[in-house]
Amino acid sequence: MLTIALIGSGNLGTQLFSLWKKHPSVQISQWVNRSTNQSIIAGVNCIPCLSNLKPADAYILAVPDRSIPSVSAQLPPSGLAIHCSGSIPLTDLENNGSQAVLYPLQSFSKSQNINLSEIPLFLEVAEGVKPTVLQQIADSWSYKQYWIDSSQRQQLHLAAVFANNFTNQLYYMASQICQRNALPFEALLPLIQETAQKIQYLTPIQAQTGPAKRNDQEVLEKQQSLLADANEKKIYQLLSQAILNQEDE
Amino acid sequence: MLTIALIGSGNLGTQLFSLWKKHPSVQISQWVNRSTNQSIIAGVNCIPCLSNLKPADAYILAVPDRSIPSVSAQLPPSGLAIHCSGSIPLTDLENNGSQAVLYPLQSFSKSQNINLSEIPLFLEVAEGVKPTVLQQIADSWSYKQYWIDSSQRQQLHLAAVFANNFTNQLYYMASQICQRNALPFEALLPLIQETAQKIQYLTPIQAQTGPAKRNDQEVLEKQQSLLADANEKKIYQLLSQAILNQEDE
Questions:
Q1: Are A74 and A55 in contact (CB under 8 A)?
Q2: A85-120, pLDDT tens digit by residue?
Q3: Any CB–CB contact under 8 A between A200 and chain B?
Q4: Residue A221 to residue A223: CA distance in whole angstroms
Q5: Do A161 and B211 touch (CB under 8 A)?
Q6: What is the pLDDT of residues A214-242, one digit of tens each?
């Protein structure tokens, strides 16, 4: 049985606690949790800060990106430190033991029940470190595993910003257009779902439709004139142009 | 029983034919279908052009936007002409009878089986025209109905371009980043689905996450430097700035 010290009680920390609190192959030895006064939760020893941390086989840093160097620097001298960030390189871990990364590619919200085992998990281990412990922890977490290096992980995180944050921002802009024109945003929800659904079995190029794809200049010009907001207009122009350029490829 | 002449055999025309070919309250009197040599399909008389069109209670123009004026000008002098376009005003219909619009807000692909009855349908009828016939046709089509005018419909179509075409273009950009870095695009699919899922019960502002939402300038700068493509970089800057501005509201 591997022992894991879990550090952090945000969205990911809370989800991982649920996953591992009663697990056949890993055991949470301590949970560094600043948001509770309880000393034991579900049989697990909770501590408010790192000073009482005992050695474990691995330390999972479910903490904000900026805290990764300082938290890792305070870890006991042996054991594997694992951060869970998309944008931070493995070398930002400053513990004396060994280093690894487990990055779950999803946008976590505390209120949601997510099945962690279905979320793609990206693995990296420092040069010269045996992957055995990391692999065992990954196996207890997700069945969708990919090995990538720090530079690939940064690019992956960037791709996720486009697919998730920016997409959500377009939903926001659509909702603003609806609001300004007394239109029901909820009527767009089936279309939003179908757009995400299509991409599960078509490539984005195959799935594309609309005025830019048809090179319908009349509609493109008309629609730009309907946008009073300068930022929305620029985004309309850039994304339409990107679709038009794609046709030329 | 209402008689409908269905004009067009593209994606929407084909879907509407399936819906109405055996319907208890509407009957397709003729199907103007240039893409078949058959004179009868499922008991319905097929004709290749408008010259043989007989009078009907309504004419459904499931044709490209640019053909709406010319096709409607050739309709018999009585009956209700209905176009199905998001971006064309009702007044572009040039028939001598009455005019209306039924706009289904979805992106149709021929290969897909879509349940038309669940797709939001936007209704408009010309001033002075009784809505009875249009309402009866709408009832045979979808149970999600909204009355809007031509100017609202243009704005709705614009909102749909953001929520559908532009979103799909962001999926494309994410897929390009993956391709350039030997990353599996399929690993982004659960995130894409969750992003569309979240918006079904959260507002876009509530659902937002990521470096711009957190105002994480370090990651924002780092990610921009990872983008070599100038257009991608501009889109990154504009959409990040839009998310940052939103925080100030």
A1: no
A2: 998 999 999 999 999 999 999 876 655 667 888 899
A3: yes
A4: 5
A5: yes
A6: 899 999 999 999 998 999 999 999 999 99
A211 touches chain B (CB under 8 A): yes
User: CA of B22 to nearest chain A CA: how many angstroms apart?
Assistant: 26
Query: Which two three-digit tokens encode residue B128?
Result: 């002075």
Residue B81 has phi, psi (to 5 degrees) of -90, 130
CA dihedral A138, A120, A122, A5 (to 10 degrees): -40
Domains of chain B: 2-148 (3.40.50.720), 153-248 (1.10.1040.20)
Q: Which residues of B124-140 are buried (b: 16+ CB within 10 A; e: fewer)?
A: bbbeeeeeebbebbbeb
Could you give the C-alpha distances from A194 to A106, A143, A204, B10, B113, in angstroms and in order?
A: 20, 27, 13, 19, 12
A62 vs A137: CA distance, rounded Å = 14
CA distance A126 to chain B (A): 20
Q: CA-CA distance, A116 to A122, in Å (whole number)?
A: 13
Pair type for strands B121-125 and B145-147:
parallel
State the CB neighbour count (10 A cutoff) for residue B144: 18
- The helix-helix angle for B230-248 and B217-226 (nearest 10°) equals 160
**B211 CB within 8 Å of a chain A CB:** yes
Sort out which chain A residues have CB atoms less than 8 A from B164's CB and list them: 191-192, 194-195, 209-210
Chain B contact present for A84, CB below 8 A: no
Q: What is the pLDDT of residues A161-175, one digit of tens each?
A: 999 999 999 999 999
Out of B178, B185, B209, the one facing A165 most closely (by C-beta) is: B209
Tokens of A168: 């959500």
DSSP A60-100: EE-S-GGGHHHHHHTS-SSSEEEE--SSS-GGG---SSEEE
Instruction: Of B218, B213, B214, B217, give the one whose Cα is nearest residue B242.
Output: B213
Contacts of residue B230, defined as CB under 8 A and 6 or more positions apart, other chains included, come to none
**H or E element that contains A4:** strand A2-7
Which helix (H) or strand (E) is B44 found in, with range? strand B44-47
Read off the pLDDT band of B11 (50, 70, 90).
confident
Answer whether B219 sits within 8 Å of A65, measured CB to CB.
Answer: yes
Instruction: For chain A, give the mean pLDDT.
Output: 93
Distance CA B165, CA B171 (A): 10
Helix H or strand E encompassing B174: helix B167-180
Residue type, B1: M
Complex prediction ipTM: 0.90
